[in-house]
UniProtKB/TrEMBL annotation:
GO terms for molecular function: ATP binding; ATP hydrolysis activity. Residues 19-244 form the ABC transporter domain. The keyword ATP-binding applies. This is ABC transporter ATP-binding protein. PROSITE patterns: ABC_TRANSPORTER_1, ABC_TRANSPORTER_2. It comes from Streptomyces nodosus. Gene3D superfamilies: P-loop containing nucleotide triphosphate hydrolases.
Length: 262
């Protein structure tokens, strides 16, 4: 079967979905032969939808995100996105020799924004992530949470309709992570972006998403989905969030037991 990675052309009419994953599988070569990491995954992300990908470590969540980002190609199947996605990693990946503002400007430059417009746009994005006045700050002057805010602003600078996030808050302390949950929810609601967010934290998945998609242990398959009908704003300690988290955790544990992983 031919492998295709298709995207809407810039300036073309928006697609009916922000991302469409159709019967995607991915194998990697190993000492014992090809290892199947993802198996026959189909998943749509609607425009403006916030979807979390949840699963045990090693189930292929990050691999799937990399395929959607275009950093790798599926072995079989098709991935279509509405324009080029923006990707935010667990590590901020900021250039330490540039200021916060210049890190954002670099993304604007690569996008073709005129030089005389970049600083103003970078400052607007810093304001959006509530880092007003941080344009001249170096990376070493920023806290972990502030660095992730700059990384978010840099991702937003790509002016993509789809934001891909690979466990961006996993390394942060609980309080900072909770604050950034609030900020991400606010930015998502203000911008109308579509978000595909990878996590192994069940409560984080329920706290943020409109829909939670659980991948089985390797090879990763879509095991189950939940629609999260809990009004925003949410907190991880809210009773409805906790109740749904318990339900999802039990299914996740069953998947792990079924595949003999611990």
């Amino acid at each position: 079967m031919a492998t295709v990675l298709a995207k809407a052309a810039d300036g073309a009419e928006s697609l009916e979905h922000a991302a469409r994953i159709e019967r995607v599988s991915k194998s990697f070569a190993g000492p014992a032969g090809a290892q199947l990491v993802l198996d026959d995954i189909s998943l749509d992300v609607a425009p403006g939808e916030f979807v979390t990908l949840l699963g045990a470590s090693g189930c292929g969540k990050s691999t799937l995100l990399n395929l959607v980002a275009g950093l790798d190609r599926p072995s079989t199947g098709t991935i279509t996105t509405d324009g080029r996605p923006a990707l935010m990693f667990q590590e901020h990946a900021l250039f330490p020799w540039l200021t916060a503002g210049k890190n954002i400007e670099l993304a604007l430059k690569l996008r073709g924004v005129a030089k005389n417009e970049r600083r103003g746009r970078a400052e607007e994005l810093l304001t959006l992530v509530r880092l007003d006045g941080s344009y001249q700050k170096r990376v070493h002057e920023l806290s972990g949470g502030m660095r992730q805010r700059v990384a978010m602003a840099r991702a937003l600078a790509q002016d993509s309709r789809l934001l891909l996030m690979d466990e961006p808050f996993a390394a942060l302390d609980a309080i900072t992570r909770d604050v950034l949950h609030d900020e991400l929810t606010r930015i998502w609601q203000e911008t109308g972006l579509s978000v595909l967010f990878v996590t192994h934290n069940v409560r984080e998945a329920v706290r943020l998403a409109q829909r939670v998609v659980l991948l089985s242990s390797r090879p990763g398959r879509v095991a189950r989905e939940w629609t999260v009908d809990i009004p925003q704003p949410r907190r991880v300690e809210d009773a409805p969030v906790a109740e749904l988290s318990v339900e999802i955790t039990e299914v996740l544990r069953g998947e792990i037991r079924r595949h003999g992983q611990h």
